[in-house]
Amino acid sequence: MSQTISIEPVTRIEGHARITIELDDAGKVDDAKFHLTQFRGFEKFCEGRPYREMPALTARTCGICPVSHLLASSKACDALLCVRIPEVAMELRRIMNLAQIIQSHALSFFHLSSPDLLLGWDCPPSERNIFGVMFRFPQLAREGIRLRQIGQTIIEMLGGKKVHPTWVVPGGVSEPLTEEKRKSMLVLVDEGLDIAKRTYAFYKDDVVPKFKDEAKHFGNFPTMFLSLVSPQGRLEHYDGLLRIKDSSGRIVEDMVPSSEYESIIGEAVEPFSYMKFPYYKPRGYPNGMYRVGPLARLNNCDSCGTPFADVALAEFRTLQESKPVASSFHYHYARLVEIIFALESIDRLLNDPSILNTFVRARARSNTLDGVGISEAPRGTLIHHYRINDDGLMTWMNLVIATGHNNLAMNKGIKQVAQKYVKARKLQEGMLNRVEALIRCYDPCLSCASHAWGQMPLQIELRDAQGRVVDTMTRGNDG
Amino acid sequence: MTDTQHITVATAWLDGCSGCHMSFLDIDERLFTLAQKVDIIYSPLVDAKELPESVDVGILEGSVSSEEDLKKAQEFRRHCKFLISLGDCAVCGNIPGMRNLFPLDAVLHRAYHENVQKNPQIPNVGVPRLLPTVQPVHGVVEVDLFVQGCPPPADVIWHVLSELIQGRTPDPMTLTRFGK
Ligand code: SF4
After folding, report:
1. What is the pLDDT of residue A476?
2. Residue A242 lies in a domain
3. What is the pTM assigned to this prediction?
4. Distances from the Cα of A158 to the Cαs of A92, A102, A217, A344, B26, in angstroms?
5. What's the CA-to-centroid distance between A354 and ligand 1, angstroms?
6. Does B20 sit in the ligand 1 pocket, CB within 6 Å?
7. In this structure, which topology does domain B7-97+131-174 adopt according to CATH?
8. A456: containing domain
9. For A266, which of B112, B117, B151 is closest by C-beta distance?
């Protein structure tokens, strides 16, 4: 009798989802699926509204990375205005984006994933959370909470609020930076860098060696990688050009401008998820599978361009003999490298006196009817594409969300982990948690993904070959 | 009630952006104080998969947009002695409610037919059905406390929880406003 295991809700991820694992007659894992269960419909309901509302409105796609939407949206609006925004506005936006990378990566690492990494897969589920880490590793928990706070505080200093700041507007930003704030930020960045370097060393020396097996089986397979890189090929999160590398490290697309994303990226739908399945067009669907996010960005860039992050990047690249690094388990590693990069970069930007320039906004009306804005969200490449009419009202919108790009790879990764750790008729809590942990590697932002989709739960259903549910199991506290 | 109590708290996000939960996490180091007085027994932040039989305080973020949201809201009402509607999406429909201006079909069509190059279709396997109209939480179950804001600031969330821990009913209306 074939069976389906379903895990619901998937917890400690940012959104709503369900995983189902299908077993064949022999009790072996046949297939595994990741369902996003939320849908919101931004692409439609923004229709008819002034484009200037889009940054504030679309930021509400996600409370974890609102800044990414704010930026991609504002950049799409900049394109509608046909302006080149003032240099300092670009650098200020960049700081806010990097601050968000810090807070979001800290959340993913400390609040959501460290319970697995520090307390162990087989720790009782009632303790396997950030509160359990606070109890057993108070110093690390305190530093993690502080690191997230540092990112959030820089966002608040610039934008007035930690979650859903405004301030980034079409044409630039609404207010310049003051000397007082610049000074306070520099102090925060110093403290953050200390924490980040300590965490990085601890992770590299104490955590990575313990998880060799997971690294081998957690979404470890060849895919392409998509990300922005700077015109010089360096690590880039705010602006830049699209690059795709294949699994052998060969560059297959390079320096593709935002406005041409449609020539390389298509989207598909599967009946089992509200999350769409983007793919690399020239290779078709589903062969055109690629990954995005910290792993992809570190694989794609030639260098970081800041001192400590470049050392860490070199170490990251030793994780695997064959480049690029293929195991999704190493998303965690890549995230820690990026936190260091973000702090070093903010420090550099703040130390340039021109950051206090007061001409921070270019003013114009819409000058064209079609605009694309791309930024690198913590979880990967984020695309906003708008069309407006002559009155500046939205007629159409397409959002390609960071987490969505990883959809094909997440589904494949779940299958790989399930095949390794799920043995039929022996369902153990720690084993199922590994399947969830795979998902956490990608740090999926399902709030984002649910602009057209939604929530993640974990529940197990056993189905026979005809697809009839013969048994269900919801994972409870007792496993 | 005595002056300080240990209370159990359950949280969930319905159709929201998780920003209200992020604002909760923005209480930062106060999480340590909280952990001494509160048990978060069910939440996207912890691993419990089932809502315990009886919970002191339930907190819901987001609107009711799908059959799953509806089920979850009803479940929270049944199991929680005190139910909080957290944030504008929960309180008034806010962003998810904007789709009410369009027929559901049109909203789905844009996402899964128009903006797609391969396999256009409306997902319907293993995903909850969407309700034709998005509602605030109190549109489907009774709510004991409303905390508005998008998201409500961390200090306000802290205030609400501290008051509840002390056995008092908080009044956040003067501390925050819609959209703040
Ligand atoms: S109220 Fe605002 S912050 Fe809260 S879920 Fe809704 S959009 Fe997000």
Report:
1. 34
2. no
3. 0.90
4. 8, 15, 42, 18, 17
5. 35
6. yes
7. Rossmann fold (3.40.50)
8. 3-39+406-475
9. B117
